[in-house]
TrEMBL record:
It comes from Olivibacter oleidegradans. It comes from the Bacteria. InterPro entries: cNMP-bd_dom (IPR000595), cNMP-bd_dom_sf (IPR018490), RmlC-like_jellyroll (IPR014710). PROSITE patterns: CNMP_BINDING_3. This is Crp/Fnr family transcriptional regulator.
Length: 193
């Protein structure tokens, strides 16, 4: 474990070998089974999760029982309920496991200690936050301004590895459309090609 995390970090910053060894001490390795919850809505979010293997998702369920997926997290991605994690308030999201997973968990106190002990990680976390903000803004704009077909094609172009690993109804939820709309979009695209 830690191989994917170190690859991810090394794409953004450089760490010394001793810093990488020290970094391991701040994380809790854990394995999850498929369909197991990592976080349930209403519980305080105690961890930020890095996915070494498998796939997780974050979502809310509305009053009618419909799931609204806000994030998929395959290998090399981070996932959490950031607001709950930072404030200690009840989580707004459920996070569960779509594929058997091996993850690295970090608590808020361990995160603060890590950032103090390894200053380069402060830059790494800032880069992650900037990328997350950009991604979120792009997703909101896309959802508000594009048609279903364009949203689907954009997602598949940017995330082909995710599109092939999640059921169609979950992909539709993430894209903000019904499964029937997604099915219709896919059929129309097949006819065009």
């Amino acid at each position: 474990m830690f191989e994917i995390l170190f690859e991810h970090i090394n794409r953004k910053i450089s760490l010394q070998e001793a810093e990488m060894e020290q970094l391991k001490t701040f994380f809790i390795p854990k394995k999850y089974r498929r369909k197991q919850y990592v976080l349930q809505q209403g519980d305080p979010c105690k961890y930020i999760v890095f996915v070494e293997k498998g796939m997780l998702r974050s979502y809310q369920v509305d009053d009618k029982g419909n799931e609204h997926i806000v994030q998929f997290a395959p290998e090399g991605w981070w996932i959490s309920d950031s607001y709950s994690f930072l404030t200690g308030t009840p989580a707004s999201y459920d996070i569960d496991v779509l594929e058997e997973a091996e993850v690295l968990l970090i608590t808020q106190p361990a995160m603060e200690e890590m950032l103090q002990a390894i200053p380069a990680m402060e830059r790494y976390m800032r880069i992650l936050m900037q990328n997350s903000l950009i991604s979120m803004q792009r997703r909101i704009a896309c959802t508000l301004t594009t048609q279903a077909e364009e949203r689907y094609l954009g997602f598949i172009a940017e995330n082909p590895h995710i599109g092939q690993r999640v059921p169609q109804h979950m992909l539709a939820s993430f894209l903000g459309m019904t499964p029937e709309t997604l099915s219709r979009v896919r059929k129309q695209l097949l006819k065009k090609s």
